[in-house]
Amino acid sequence: MLRLRPLARAPLRRYFSASQMKDEYGAMSDAGDTFEHDGPFTLESGEVLPHAQLRYNTYGSLNPAGTNVLLVNHALTGNSDLASWWGSMLGPTLAFDTDKYFVVSANILGSCYGSTSPTSVDPSTGEPYGKSFPSVSVRDTVKLQGKLLESLGVTSLKSVVGGSFGGMQTLEYLFTGQEFGPETRSAIPIACGSHHTGWQIGISELQRQAIYADPDWAEGEGWNAKKGLEVARQIGMISYRTSQAYEEKFGRGVQGGKIYGSDAEWDVKSYLEYQGRKFLDRFDPITYVKLTEQMDSHDISRGRGEMKAVLNSVKVPTLIVGIDSDVLYPVHEQESLRDGIQGSELVVVNSDAGHDGFLLEQEEVSKNVIRFLESIE
């Protein structure tokens, strides 16, 4: 059983609504169906999960051939409920047209939204894995998703779509059919690169260090390192946006006229406190550490050869999407994908939202997804 002690919370000075700075996600839950892997699941590291499951959701109907399938992958703190984060793109006549396609969205292995994760019970101890949860790679998540797709009767994927962490999974699907799982006939990786760079690993590590600095991480089981998780989330919220967005929404706004020292009540401070505390309602410190480590494993060339040759080996239509203001996964990374994958196309979305533009600029992303999907069989 998880043993969480209550965290004392001072009242927030101000509530920030979506109209003041849009949130990336709607209400989050672990609702959906569950895929149970048959037998132990061996990870890329050589470690073995005695039991592995994925939570997933499906929309629309699978055709008799099992080929009208869109797989949509979520980002770091997302879930398999596609409607809660790309809802305006899901439904009849929309990008993920449920009259045409069988749309599948699967939770990441290691996530706290219904898949096997640090919160799951370790059969060898009868207690949650916690910090002992084994290291999972992006490739592990994709291989287990491949098993899920086969269990659903999927024989090939019309396209795989995803942004950020979801884009990393999407790039791995370019090698399914060759190595594992159903064949992928096209892909739309958004706001990501071919591998996690030192810049991105550094930002992940900074967030983890905030959690490690919480006394409960070193002295306790880690579940209650919540102040550290609050700070980690605040760091993330800075890296996901831009200077322009923060200036437009907050500028030098202040409450109560206090601008000096630790008593200063800047609007942006209140916003970041709100985001950090809100995050505690849906995530735990150990899962956050493990998932950021999984992102850091991203490298499509690992075990496949030199990156240029690996990218050149991709033969399926690929639409690459970048956000022009993204400082976390800058556009030059998407340009490198475009230059390496033969016949691929790059679309750069204009947005002041930074990295989160892939979630917030749904109209522009949707338009390009529809156009691309209509251009391929």
TrEMBL record:
Coiled coil: none annotated. One of its GO terms (molecular function) is homoserine O-acetyltransferase activity. Keywords: Transferase. One of its GO terms (biological process) is methionine biosynthetic process. Gene3D superfamilies: alpha/beta hydrolase (3.40.50.1820). Residues 68-361 form the AB hydrolase-1 domain. The active site is at residues 164, 326, 355. It comes from the Eukaryota. InterPro entries: AB_hydrolase_1, AB_hydrolase_fold, HAT_MetX-like. The keyword Transmembrane helix does not apply. The keyword Disulfide bond does not apply. Belongs to the AB hydrolase superfamily. MetX family. NCBIfam families: homoserO_Ac_trn, PRK00175.1. This is AB hydrolase-1 domain-containing protein. It comes from Triparma strigata. The lineage of its organism: Eukaryota, Sar, Stramenopiles, Ochrophyta, Bolidophyceae.
